[in-house]
Amino acid sequence: MPPAGFQDVQAMVFVGFGLLMAFLQRYGFSSVGFTFLLAAFALQWSTLVQGFFHSFHGGHIHVGIESMINADFCAAAVLISFGAILGKTGPAQLLLMALLEVVLFGVNEFVLLSLLGVKDAGGSMTIHTFGAYFGLVLSRVLYRPQLEKSKHRQGSVYHSDLFAMIGTIFLWIFWPSFNSAPTTLGDGQQRTALNTYYSLTASTLSTFALSALVGGDGRLDMVHIQNAALAGGVVVGTSAEMMLTPFGALVAGFLAGTVSTLGYKFFTPTLESKFKVQDTCGVHNLHGMPGVLGALLGVLVAGLATHEAYGDGLESVFPLVAEGQRSATSQAVYQLFGLFVTLTFASVGGGLGGLLLRLPFLGSLPDSQCYEDQIYWEVPGEHEEEAQGPLRVEERDTQA
Amino acid sequence: MPPAGFQDVQAMVFVGFGLLMAFLQRYGFSSVGFTFLLAAFALQWSTLVQGFFHSFHGGHIHVGIESMINADFCAAAVLISFGAILGKTGPAQLLLMALLEVVLFGVNEFVLLSLLGVKDAGGSMTIHTFGAYFGLVLSRVLYRPQLEKSKHRQGSVYHSDLFAMIGTIFLWIFWPSFNSAPTTLGDGQQRTALNTYYSLTASTLSTFALSALVGGDGRLDMVHIQNAALAGGVVVGTSAEMMLTPFGALVAGFLAGTVSTLGYKFFTPTLESKFKVQDTCGVHNLHGMPGVLGALLGVLVAGLATHEAYGDGLESVFPLVAEGQRSATSQAVYQLFGLFVTLTFASVGGGLGGLLLRLPFLGSLPDSQCYEDQIYWEVPGEHEEEAQGPLRVEERDTQA
Amino acid sequence: MPPAGFQDVQAMVFVGFGLLMAFLQRYGFSSVGFTFLLAAFALQWSTLVQGFFHSFHGGHIHVGIESMINADFCAAAVLISFGAILGKTGPAQLLLMALLEVVLFGVNEFVLLSLLGVKDAGGSMTIHTFGAYFGLVLSRVLYRPQLEKSKHRQGSVYHSDLFAMIGTIFLWIFWPSFNSAPTTLGDGQQRTALNTYYSLTASTLSTFALSALVGGDGRLDMVHIQNAALAGGVVVGTSAEMMLTPFGALVAGFLAGTVSTLGYKFFTPTLESKFKVQDTCGVHNLHGMPGVLGALLGVLVAGLATHEAYGDGLESVFPLVAEGQRSATSQAVYQLFGLFVTLTFASVGGGLGGLLLRLPFLGSLPDSQCYEDQIYWEVPGEHEEEAQGPLRVEERDTQA
C-alpha cells in the first residue's frame, strides 16, 4: 500500500477541497464533480511537467510516491484558483486554466526550490500564494459587472453548509500530513506535524472568537468557521519544518485565523466593489493573505536559524546554510525573493489565463446563469424545481 | 495501530460502498445500514471460511492483519452483488445471500490462487467479476416483471447524489491501497499503487468526456461520474502488480471508463428489456465488464512477462515462472482458465442463491414496495411525507 | 507525516463524533461546529495539563506524537460529556465544562495509570466511563423540567440521520486504531486491533437483531444502529490488549450491543422520568454501561493472566505482574479500584461542573430554545423557515 501521508493528501485534495466548495445551494454537483475532473487532469499533466523538471533522466521520467505527492500539491494549487472563479466558468475553461497553471506551477516551484534554494515544504508560497493570486487575477480579468443577477444562488442552504463543513474537517485533520509529506522522515517530519497541529488549533479558536465578535448579534458565521479555521495550516506552510516552536506556531495560527476572519467580514466586499475581483470562495482570505503571511514568517524564522538551535537537523532543513554556502540572513533574503517571484508568476499567469478563458469559442456563461448546476449536469427533479424553486426568483428578475 | 492499508480498505468497504449505494431518494438508510450489516456479517463469516482454506493448522484458525484484509475483500464481493439487487430484497434475504456467497468466494479464490497459481492481487476476477455476475444472475432469478410500480422511487434527489459522490471519492482515493494491499512490500507494492492511480485518472477523464458526448444536450450524468470513473481501478485489479507500465495503465483506464459509461447509457436498458436482468446500481458496467476486461488484460500482461522486464521482481509476481515450472504463455493460459472458473462459480452460485432467496418464508417484497426505507426502518417524519411526499405519486398510480 | 494511528484517532474525534451528534434536525451546525471548537480547545489545554503530569522535565513540557494522541483521547472524553447535554448548552458553557473536565481527566488518568498501575489502553474507564458519568451528572444538575417545549426539534430528519450514520461508520472503522494507539508496537498492537475488530462486528450484528426485535413492528431504529453498533469498541477498551481471545471479543461485543440497544429502548426514558437525567445522545447506553462492563471485563481478564498465556508479552501488558510485584488477582483488584476511582471523579466533577454552568452570567437557554442552531449561528434562509418550518410548530405551542 502507498504510505499513509500520500493517502492523507489525496483525501484533502479530493474530499476536502471538493466538499468545502460544495457550500453553494445549487452548485454541489459542479463543486464536487469539477474538483474531481480538475484534480484527475492536474495529477496526470503535473506528473509529466514536474517529471520533466525534477526526474527526467536518460529520456525517461521517473515516477514514484514522491512524484505522486508533488502532483497532488500542484492539483491543490489548481483547486485554490478554482475557488476564486467557482460558479462562473465551465469545464472547458477550467481544463484550459489547469493546462496553463500546472506548467507555471512547475516553473515557479523549480525556480524557488531548485534554483533559489528556498524552503517551502508545506507550500505557503508555491501552493497557497501562487494558487490564490493566480485565481484572483484571473477572476479580475473575467470580471462580471452583472453578477448580481445570480445573487440568489450565491448563498448556501442548511445541508450544503454541512457538506462544506465535512470538507473543512477533512482538510483540518490531514493538514499536518500535508505540510510534512515532503520533509524527510524522523525528527523533522514530527516537528512539522506538531507545529501545523498547534497552529491549526489556535486559528480555530481565534476564528470562533472573531466570528462571534464581528457578527452583529454575536452569532457565528459558517463561512468563517469553514474557511478561516484552516488558515493556521496555510500560515505555517513554509516555517513548520523550521524551529518555529509550539509557542510560535500558536501565535502564528492565532494571527492567521484573525486576519482571515476579518478578511471575510471586511475585505471581500471591498475586493469586489473597489478592485473588481469577485472571489467566490474567499480564497484571498484563506490562501492569499495567510500564504503571504506564511512566506514572511518563513523569512523571519529562516533568518533566526543557528547551528545551536537546529543541531544535526540544520543539514536537512537548510542544507546551504549548514554547508556554509549561505548565512541565515542570506537564506532569509532568498526566501523573501521567492515570495516576490511567486507573486510575479501568479499575477502574470493569472492575467494570461484570464485572457485565454475569454476566448469566444469556450462559451462563457451569461451573468444570470452562474452558480447553477443545471447548465452542466442533469439534475434530478429539475423540472419540478424549475417551477417552484430558486429559478422562479430568476424569472421574476427577468420580468422586473 | 493496524497498518494504514488495512484501514483504507475498511474505509472503502464501509464508507465507499455504503454511500455509493445511497443515491436512491428513499433508500439511504437501507443502503448504508444494510451495507454495514452485510459487511459486519461477511467479515466474521469470511474469517472462518477463508481461515479454513488458508490458515487452518493444528485444529486452529490463525488470524492476523492478512486475514482481516482477505475478509474485507470478500465483503467487497458481497457488496457488489448487493448492488445488483439493491432495493428489491430484505435483510434476511441479504444475510442468506452472504452466507452462501462468502463460501463460494472462498472456494473460488482457493481454486484460483492456491490450486491454479493464478495472480489476481486486486481481484479483477475473484472480487469484481465474481461479485458482479453472482449478483446479476441472482437478480435474473428474482426478476420482477412489475418493477415499473416502484419506478418513481428509483431515481435520486439532489442531496442523495452528493452522498453517493462522497462514496465515489472515497473508493477512488483508496483504490491504490486496495489493489496493493495483498502484494508484498517494496517495489511491487509501489508499482501496483502507481499503476492503479494512473488508470483511475484516465478512466475519470474518459468518463467525463463520454458522459457529455452521449448526453443529448451535452450535459453530464451523475450516474456515470459516480460509477464509471471508478472502472479504472477495476480494470487493473489483476495486472497492476505486473509490468503494466504507466502508459499501459493510462490506456487501460481510458478504455474502462469508456466501456463503463457506454454500458450505463446503452447496455443497462437492454439488459433489463432483453435479458430480464434488473441491475439497480449498474454493477455490470462498473464491476462486470471492467472485471472481465481486467482479467483479459492480466492474461495479456502475464503472457508478455520476461526475466529481463521483471528482474528480481519476477519471483514475487510470478513465482512459478521464475522457478521455471511454467512459461509465461502457460501462466497466461492459467489466467484465462481462472476467468472461466470464476464466471462458472459466479453464475451457478448466483442461480442457486436466487432460488434460495425465493423461499416463501423469507417474505419477498411486493413490486410496488421496492426502493423504500419505510418497510425496514422507522423513518423520521414519515407520516407527513406519506401525505405529501413521493408516496403520493404511488397512490395516484394505484388509482389509475 | 505523522503515523497513521494518530490520523485515525483525529478522524474519529473530529469527523466521527461531530457527525454522530449531527442527527438533530435543527442542530447540525452546532453539533459539528461545537465539536470542532471543543476538540481544538481540549487538544491545547490537555497538552498542557497532561504534559504537566507525564512529561514535565527541567521546566519544560515535552511534546510529540504520544502527547498528541493523549490529547485526542482527552478530547474524546469531553465530547462524550458534550453528548449528554447536546442542544441544551451554549459555547461559553461548553468551554467552561472542557476547562474543568480536561483537568479532572488528567488527574484521574494519572491516578489510574501512574499511581495504581491500572491498564486501560482503549479507555473503557478513563475515557468512556469518565466522560459518560461526568456528562450525565452534569446533565442531572442542569435538569430542565420544561424541556418538552423543545421536543419538536429533538428528532432527526432523513438527511440528518444519514450524516450521523457517516459519523458512526467513521468511528467504527477507526476504532481498532483508537484502542491500539497507545499500546506498544508489534504483537500487542495487532492483538488489540483484532480483538476490537471482532467485538465491533459482533455488537453490530446483535444491535441489528435486537433493534428489529424490540421495535413494535419489526422495523429497525436508526438511533440503535448509529450508537449501539459501536458499543463493541467501548466494551473492549480495557481488555483488548489482554489475552481476551477472538471468541471472548465476540461474546463481549455481542453483550455490549445487546445491553446498549435495550438501554436505548427501555432505560433512557426511565433515566429522564425517574432520575431526572436528560441524556440527549444516550451516552449512558453507548459509553456509560458499556464502559463499566468493559472495566469489569478488564478485571476478569487481568485476574486470569498467567505467564503461560502471555509469554514474553506479559512484560508489556502487565509489567508489575511480570516483575513479580503483584499477582494477577492483585492486578484485578487494582483494576476494580480504578473503576471506583473513575466513577467518583466523574460524579464529583460532573456535579461541580453543573454548578459552574449554572452561573447566571453564562446565559443559559430557555427550555423552549433548545436544539436550535439559530441561537448561535446565522442559518441560511432562516427567515423563510421561521415562517413555514419547524418553528411554526413552536409558535402554535405558545399559543396553546
Automatic annotation (TrEMBL), chains A, B, C:
It is found in: Basolateral cell membrane. Pfam families: Ammonium_transp. Its main location: membrane. Keywords: Ammonia transport, Cell membrane, Glycoprotein, Membrane, Transmembrane, Transmembrane helix, Transport. It is a multi-pass membrane protein. GO terms for cellular component: basolateral plasma membrane. One of its GO terms (biological process) is ammonium homeostasis. One of its GO terms (molecular function) is ammonium channel activity. Interacts (via C-terminus) with ANK2 and ANK3; required for targeting to the basolateral membrane. Belongs to the ammonium transporter (TC 2.A.49) family. Rh subfamily. Ammonium transporter involved in the maintenance of acid-base homeostasis. Transports ammonium and its related derivative methylammonium across the basolateral plasma membrane of epithelial cells likely contributing to renal transepithelial ammonia transport and ammonia metabolism. May transport either NH4(+) or NH3 ammonia species predominantly mediating an electrogenic NH4(+) transport. May act as a CO2 channel providing for renal acid secretion. This is Ammonium transporter Rh type B. It comes from Diceros bicornis minor.
